[in-house]
Specification:
heterodimer, A: 111 residues, Alpha-Beta Plaits, two-stranded antiparallel ribbon, globular, B: 785 residues, Rossmann fold, Dimethylsulfoxide Reductase, domain 2, Barwin-like endoglucanases, six-stranded mixed β-barrel, binds iron/sulfur cluster
């Protein structure tokens, strides 16, 4: 049972791919066909007159939320390296509070 | 930061370092720990959370470090090849001694038979080489002929020269509290209200050492954006104002913004009275340059320009970042002048949350130019620097690439005999415009050599000797953001991995220098060299820097009030008038208009309507990617996997009209040449503009000539003309020519063979290739003017 969720404040996600590469190194994913986390993209499209363009990094079944790093008191590798600082591993009980603080454009994953 | 830069952590050894490149990008100096096992093998890299700028973050290029270090494609030892075998994979491993013997013998032979000026050094961009390449030319080969060789020196040089002339200061940079240990929380700091990103995409490019994602840090703290870019970048999609201009019309946007600020009286009178020269003349020049005037030229709705100008001028402090697009146009010096004028009259220079200024050059950034003393004055006078056509350029430190190509071809006033490629792969679409012309000219050289970390198309095609360069994880060094021109910190680079036979750029300079010109190279080790550089300003050494990790330099705002920008310590700016010159007091001497003006790009829907009939789309190039640095990183599997192909971005409506679908192979063609990229259909570009990525070659393909790793297939620089530069000699249309696009079967349709290349006498508007060195007439103005 996971103790944390991966919270992504995706309105700030720039699509930089650091999470993908950080995860590949951390989890030693050798095959280029496999990903621990991968970006999805929507846009740029005009929605109701405004540009909409967002990336969301989606963790896969290979993601264990960096259990061993969390156990050592470290951030998950993707969170640690995220250039936009828009990823967090949040203890489950604190997720609703954190969501309220972050406002719109946020995703929560329990991979 | 941790007090120990090297320590054992469990079974591993951890070395702290600051990144530059190779591999990587500009001198950003992100903090990181490199872990090795006890045998010295790379295990992993992790960002250092205590680094004041990067704070633990790393971009994909550094996160793929292990793949770079262990790449089977690395050049691991010096190699030679017979001159007759250029283009063939007949490289032979040799020792460093033999390599140095060959280099010494060839250079001395050329010195004696033809003179040192017949050696040319091509410098790459961004990497540590930016500091160490000019000294190789001047203090090793004793030649004055050296440059970064985009047409018109179209990268960084134009901006720094305009800043030198008008501002008398080093690179003007967005204030992102980079000088302060507590960063944004420092009480002296203010968050900029608006940030203009002008022709700049800093998230991907980390330009010149600016930390790109600082923009995100600032957006979270409330900064709003004004993006001036033909592309709807991700940042533009979040901007308060997006000025989506036709490529190459930046000066018209600038003039119109000045018109709004000056006619609506939104400027800082007190600052202007004390510190700005020529405001009245400027006001007169822009009086009729209304946003409506600019709308016809730039395709930007007048109200967007007006709104942006008002928001910028009435929200102090605000700031501007100027990007490469200012350099890559003939009219760029004027775009830059109007941009600096805008920031100056609003009073945003060197104030908290505005634009930081600094002294023009320091440390290795200054030393590299001082090595010019090792060039004999008579030889220096023979530098090919366009002094007749572009005297302003000839005041600068470099040879003029456009004139150099003409000289290489015509052999007048003299023939070149040797070329040295220093961390550059210019025939791949990064540097040279009309790359096939360059390739053929360089084939004539008696001897060509290079230093790099991978076998590139340039080396495979042209060189007779190659020296292996170590990556930054494999050597000691000092990171110098902005190359010493506005350097918020010095970062210690500590070797974590055994480089084998590879050496750093400065180490190669030193061993070559000791053979050819020992008086210029008194240091025995890189460490001694860095000690000497640091001691030009501080009383500590490289080893102290290792312990500190990062040394943030002291910073004072409003240096112009305190006599800190001029060598005579008087208040003011280091210009002839002592003020920021929005109307230049020196341009007249160079035959240049003292005030900013707009000029159409050499090839555009308005300057060449006949060409536009067949080639109706405006082609812009060079937008960057997170997973590569120009032509680097194509052979790094995890990075290539993210962006496997060169991409031409096409608006959905344009693609539909031409029957092009996402992923299709698309030929991009104009009167100068053609290339093939794959279609990316996106609203990022408007209907009349396409954007093509640069730097593409295919390390996995056949390396031997004529294929040369496929470097001619997706070579967008074949569509860019040489010698269409501005009056000051700077700026060329890399990002604003015309093209047509159509679907093809594969990359092969873009291929060409330089052996069959014949520059036609005239093609395109006037002669785009063979014409007289005199650039396109400056009188070409827009109809609306
Ligand atoms: S939490 Fe760890 S395993 Fe999961 S995506 Fe991030 S780096 Fe990969
Ligand atoms: S590292 Fe962060 S900013 Fe970059 S793509 Fe992943 S979530 Fe987005
Ligand atoms: S900006 Fe990217 S490539 Fe450059 S040092 Fe930082 S992490 Fe490395």
């Amino acid at each position: 049972m996971k103790t944390h969720a991966l919270v992504i404040d995706y309105k700030y996600c720039t699509g930089c791919h650091s999470c993908e590469l950080a995860c590949r190194q951390e989890k030693q994913i050798a095959s280029q066909d496999e990903w621990g986390i991968k970006l999805a993209e929507f846009g740029p499209e005009k929605l109701a007159g405004e540009w909409y363009w967002n990336y969301v990094a989606v963790p896969s079944s290979l993601c264990d939320l960096c259990e061993s790093r969390l156990a050592e008191g470290k951030k998950p590798a993707c969170v640690h390296h995220c250039l936009a600082k828009c990823m967090e591993a949040v203890p489950l009980a604190e997720v609703p509070t954190r969501l309220a603080e972050l406002g719109d454009g946020v995703a929560v994953f329990m991979p | 930061m941790d007090a120990e830069w090297k320590k054992e952590v469990g079974d591993l050894i951890r070395v702290r370092t600051c990144g530059w490149s190779p591999p990587g990008d500009h001198p950003v100096g992100c903090g990181m720990f490199i872990y090795t096992d006890k045998d010295g093998n790379f295990v992993k890299v992790e960002g250092d959370p205590d680094h004041p700028i990067s704070q633990g973050r790393l971009c994909p290029r550094c996160l793929a470090m292990g793949e770079f270090l262990n790449s089977p494609d690395r050049i691991k030892y010096p190699m030679k090849r017979a001159r007759a075998d250029r283009g063939k994979d007949t490289w032979e491993r040799i020792t460093w001694d033999e390599a140095l013997d060959i280099l010494e013998r060839e250079v001395k032979k050329i010195w004696e038979e033809y003179g040192p000026e017949t050696i040319y050094l091509f410098q790459g961009t961004g990497r540590e080489a930016t500091l160490y390449a000019p000294p190789m030319a001047q203090a090793c080969f004793k030649t004055p002929n050296c440059s970064f060789s985009m047409s018109g020196g179209s990268c960084y040089g134009p901006r720094t020269v305009v800043a030198d002339f008008l501002l008398g200061a080093g690179y003007p940079e967005l204030d992102y509290a980079a000088y302060f240990p507590d960063r944004y929380d420092d009480p002296r700091y203010e968050v900029p209200k608006y940030i203009i990103l002008w022709g700049k995409s800093p998230l991907q490019s980390n330009p010149d050492g600016f930390y790109g994602h600082a923009i995100i840090d600032l957006m979270k703290r409330g900064s709003k954006l004004i993006v001036i870019d033909p592309r709807l970048t991700w940042l533009a999609s979040r901007a308060a104002f997006h000025i989506q201009l036709r490529p190459g019309t930046d000066a018209a946007v600038g003039l119109a913004m000045l018109n709004v600020v000056l006619t609506e009286d939104l400027y800082d009178h007190e600052f202007c009275e004390n510190w700005v020269f020529g405001v009245e003349e400027l006001a007169e020049r822009v009086a009729d340059k209304t946003p409506e005037w600019a709308e016809d030229i730039t395709w930007v709705p007048a109200e967007v320009i007006r709104g942006a100008a008002r928001a910028f001028a009435t929200n102090a402090p605000s700031s501007i970042m100027w990007g490469l697009a200012i350099d890559t146009q003939q009219n760029g010096a004027q775009a830059g002048q109007s941009l600096l004028a805008l920031a100056a009259i609003c009073g945003y220079m060197d104030v908290p949350g505005g634009i930081t200024l600094s002294l023009p050059s320091s440390f290795m950034g200054r030393w590299r130019f001082e090595t010019a003393q090792y060039v004999d004055p008579e030889t220096m006078a023979k530098r090919i620097d366009a002094k007749e056509d572009h005297p302003a350029y000839a005041c600068g430190p470099f040879a003029h690439p456009d004139e150099v190509l003409t000289v290489m071809e015509t052999e007048e006033p003299y023939a070149f005999h040797m070329a040295y490629f220093y961390a550059t792969n210019p025939i791949s679409p990064t540097v040279y415009a009309e790359p096939e012309r360059w390739y053929n000219a360089l084939m004539k050289m008696d001897f060509n050599a290079a230093q790099d970390c991978f076998m590139t198309p340039t080396i495979m095609g042209l060189c007779d000797l190659v020296l292996p360069v170590s990556g930054f994880a494999e050597h000691d060094g000092v990171v110098l953001p902005h190359f010493g021109r506005n350097t918020h910190f010095l970062g210690a680079m500590n070797a974590a991995i055994d480089p084998g036979e590879a050496k750093s750029d400065i180490e190669i300079d030193m061993i070559v220098g000791k053979r050819l010109n020992p008086e210029a190279w008194p240091w025995e080790t890189a460490e001694e060299f860095f000690n000497a550089q640091i001691r030009t300003q501080y009383d500590w050494d490289f080893n102290d820097l290792r312990d500190m990790g990062v040394f943030q330099q002291n910073f004072e705002y409003r240096k112009y009030e305190k006599g800190m920008l001029r060598p005579d310590s008087e208040p003011g700016f280091n210009t002839p008038t002592g003020m920021i010159e929005v109307c230049s007091s020196i341009y007249d001497d160079f035959g240049e208009d003292e005030l900013p003006y707009f000029m159409e790009p050499a090839m555009s829907p308005y300057s060449t309507p006949d060409v536009a009939e067949e080639y109706p789309l405006v082609l812009t190039t060079g937008g960057r990617d997170f997973v590569s640095f120009h032509s680097e990183h194509r052979q790094i599997p995890s990075l290539r996997n993210v962006t496997p192909d060169p991409l031409v971005t096409i608006n959905p409506a344009t693609a539909r009209a031409l029957g092009i679908n996402a992923g299709d192979y698309v030929c991009i063609e104009n009167p100068l040449g053609k290339c093939v990229e794959r279609a990316r259909i996106s609203n990022e570009v408007p209907e009349r503009v396409v954007h093509a990525t640069h730097g593409w070659w295919y390390p996995e393909e056949e390396g031997e000539a004529p294929n040369l790793f496929g470097t001619w297939k997706s070579n967008v620089n074949k569509l860019i003309p040489m010698y269409k530069v501005g009056k000051l000699g700077y700026g060329a249309p890399y990002k604003n020519v015309l093209c047509k696009i159509y679907k093809v079967d594969g990359y092969e349709a873009g291929n060409s063979n330089p052996a069959e290349y014949e520059p036609p006498a005239s093609r395109g508007p006037e002669s785009m290739t063979k014409g007289a060195p005199a650039p396109l007439s400056y009188e070409v103005k827009h109809q609306g003017e």
